[in-house]
Design a protein that fits this description.
It is a single chain. The chain contains eight helices and 16 strands. α2 packs parallel to α3 and α4 packs across α5. The relative contact order is 0.12. The strands form four sheets. Strands 2-1-5-6-7-8 form a six-stranded parallel beta sheet, with helices on both faces. By secondary structure, it is α/β, with parallel strands linked by helices. Bound molecules: ribose-5-phosphate. Ribose-5-phosphate binds next to β13 and α6.
Amino acid sequence: MLIYAGSASKYFGLKLARLLGVEYVNTETRKFPDGELYIRFDKEPRGETAVLVQSMYRTPNDYLIEYLFISKTLKELGAREVIGVIPYFPYARQDTRFKPGEVVSLSVVLELLEKMGTDRVVTVDMHLHRVEDIGEISKIPFTNLSVMEEIGRYFRDKIRKEKTIVVGPDEEAKQWARIVADVLQVPFTVLEKIRLGDTEVEIKAREEELIEGMDVLIVDDIISTGGTIEAAVKRVKERGANRVFVACAHAILAANAEYRVFHEGVEELVASDTIPSPYSVVSAIPVVAKYLSKM
Ligand code: R5P
């Protein structure tokens, strides 16, 4: 097995190779003055399984194109199999045609991966909502790992068990809130979210009596604009929450998200390293390494 990484995930790739005890192949990626890509690997993958690591955050289109160039070339150069490790998988939220005429981006991305030589995909806490089993729409095997148990373990020594509740900002977040709550052995609940636009949401508390006087750990998969977390923090504070912590798998942190997360008085934001950020104190790399080592 050889590990390759696109420019989004060099550290992830290097650390993954070290944990697996396999070779990391350096890949040079740069842009020509006109913006076109130049890519070259130090070693060709002839006959080997090639693992290609590329998280697709913040500039997903650039990282996707780079990934496709590398995946296709690894296959052309004799890789026995190309395993795409995509710690943050983009476009997962556009998994259906909400309005007539819309592009279903997720199925386009999946088809591109398959057509460009990827044989299987491994990702982390992908936003699966309407599509519960990605295998239903992906022609190639697809594994969705989770870093939520690691997030739970991170908070073990930080919380007062009898005084803490895990809160998901919406129904979709139930799956992640449940895992974190199970690890911490505390209760969980979810709020109700109505999306008003790309950056604004309205959040209502459901079982509000559970929140009063408690420390609250809000758990979601993605923080993008921060609108969801901002509204959730506001709501749980209005409902009498004591200290508020926030955790997510993927800290995209677009635009003014950090302000929106912190300005209502959040104690700490914890994220995984699927997307590098100052809050990436939990690692998804051992989770991916464990899975690949068993394959
Ligand atoms: C969608 O429902 C996701 O689970 C997240 O809640 C959402 O993507 C967060 O986006 P934003 O930070 O822009 O509110």
